[in-house]
Structure formats: C-alpha cells, structure tokens
Write a structure and sequence with these properties.
38% helix, alpha/beta, disordered N terminus
C-alpha cells in the first residue's frame, strides 16, 4: 500500500511516513507570516511541513493557514505534503516538490521489500505525474546486519526496475541520504555509497535527496560534495548543524555559501527547508532561512 502524508500538524516526520489519509482543516486565514520582500528565486525553495508540526499545534494553526503563510513568504513548494493536500497547495500556487512513498526502515536494500516498496514508488510516480509534480522519495532502508555492498546491489536492482517508468512519466525518484545516528542503522549514510549507486543505475530520473544536515552529521564535506558530485543530487534539504535547528549564525554551516555553490552547478530543482525551529516564532525563523538561501 502506498503511503501519503496526512494533515501534519501533530506528527513527526518519522511517524508521518507510516500514515495515510486525512482531511484538511479549512479555517479563516489570518496574516500569519507578515510581509516579505520579493525573492530572487535563483534558488527555488520549498518547506518540509512536518518540521512545523509542534508550532502549528501550539498556535492552533491549520494546514491551510501554514500553506498560506508559506505562500506569503514567497515559497513555491512543500515537501512531503499528503496527496489529500495537493489541491490545497495548488490553490495557493504551490506544488508538492517531493511526494512520499514508503517508510524509512524497510527499503530497497532488501529483496523481500522490493515488491511493496516499488509498488508504493510507482503509485507515487503516477500521482505526481498526473499532478505535474517533479519528485518521489524512496529510502535505502536500515542495514540490520546486511553487508552494505549487498544492500547497494539490491538497491541498484530495484531502481533499475522502476527507472524506465520514471523516465517515461518524467518524474525523478530521489533516495534520501540520512545519517545513521539519528536514523539508527540506516544504510544510505555516505557520499561514496550514493555516488556508486547513482553511477550504476545510470538513469536521469534516479537521483539522491542530498540532505546537508545528515551529510554533515556523517562528517561529509557538503561543499565538496556539492561541487564534485552534483550530478548525483536531485534535491537538497537544509538543517542547522548541530541540532537540526535554525540555519542562522547559531550553527556551523554557512548556508549562504552552500547555496551559491549549488547555484554555480546549474541546479534548477528545489532546496527544501528541513530544519526544526527552536525559536518560538517559527515563521520568522523560516523567513530568515529563506532570506539566507535566496542568493544571487
């Protein structure tokens, strides 16, 4: 069964990937974001809505109110919005920049997971293609004692089975780079592993969701990865290091510099803001992050 993301006001990202179905709240929309200066939009930005679940619950903010606030800030896309929310995104001139598929732990690294995972990915590809949305997420799965070379081989086998379909539908499958500390035992946790994977699958419609925070947690050099291996990356996520909070001067990664490096590669996809706001005014934190990444 394919898994799409429901109303995300009360759940974590780990939980949301296991759930399906929900109705949208339809409340009056206050001016929740405040005025924002027009963006350069050289870097196309999206927002991972799950990061704001706590804020939305605390402020009694509906999904529609949050989407409206993001639109007011100039954001054009939401990552991992549920299919039931796609019409809402379109209402505000936005897209779902990364559609969900299957859960994180049971992924393509094990043959016994291929049938269910590929069915979920295919269903998401169909939905994304029909909606005109660009990407579908997938995961390596957890290691659970499996040799990483065997797991990589199994991922290659699975992705080759679906890559032609993705090419036909003009939707890109993105396997996410996650650290194996927060996501304990996750297999796809290194640049080298993913570079080999993408090289072997060799499809323009199979890429990596390169999460800068997760890569930094694994002590990868994000700037070097962006400059040397950008052909492998189909989507980016942000997050403050350490802590995965705001991407401002309180953390160690220079996101302005990293965005300029991404821009220099000719990248035209989306960069998803996936930090978990620590400050009380989460929308202001998002506004600041958007400004940091709005480089020229």
């Amino acid at each position: 069964m394919n898994i799409f993301i429901p109303n995300l006001t009360t759940i974590s990202r780990r939980a949301m990937l296991k759930l399906s179905g929900a109705s949208l709240a339809t409340l009056a929309l206050p001016n929740v974001a405040g005025a924002a200066a027009p963006l350069n939009n050289k870097i196309h930005q999206s927002v991972c809505i799950w990061c704001y679940s706590g804020f939305m619950k605390r402020e009694k903010m509906s999904t529609e109110q949050f989407v409206a606030a993001c639109a007011e800030l100039g954001v054009k896309a939401i990552d991992l919005a549920g299919i039931s929310e796609w019409n809402l995104l379109k209402k505000y001139g936005m897209i779902c920049s990364m559609a969900s598929s299957h859960a994180i732990p049971k992924g393509l690294n094990r043959v016994e997971n291929h049938e269910a995972c590929l069915a979920a990915v295919k269903k998401s590809i169909d939905a994304a293609a029909e909606a005109g949305f660009p990407n579908v997420i997938t995961f390596s799965g957890n290691t659970e004692g499996l040799d990483k070379k065997v797991g990589l081989e199994n991922c290659v086998t699975a992705l080759k089975q679906i890559s032609g379909y993705a090419e036909e539908k003009k939707v890109t499958i993105c396997m996410e780079f996650l650290n194996s500390i927060n996501h304990k035992d996750y297999m796809g946790d290194s640049t080298a592993w993913f570079v080999e994977l993408i090289g072997r699958v060799n499809s323009p419609r199979v890429k990596v969701l390169y999460d800068i925070y997760h890569a930094a947690m694994m002590k990868e050099n994000a700037l070097e990865d962006i400059q040397k291996h950008n052909a492998c990356w189909g989507h980016y996520h942000t997050g403050g290091m350490p802590g995965r909070n705001e991407i401002d001067a309180s953390q160690t990664l220079d996101y302005g510099h990293l965005m300029k490096a991404i821009l220099a590669t000719g990248y035209t996809g989306y960069v998803g803001q996936e930090f978990v706001p620590k400050k009380p005014d989460a929308l202001n934190s998002l506004k600041e992050a958007i400004a940091i990444c709005d480089v020229v």
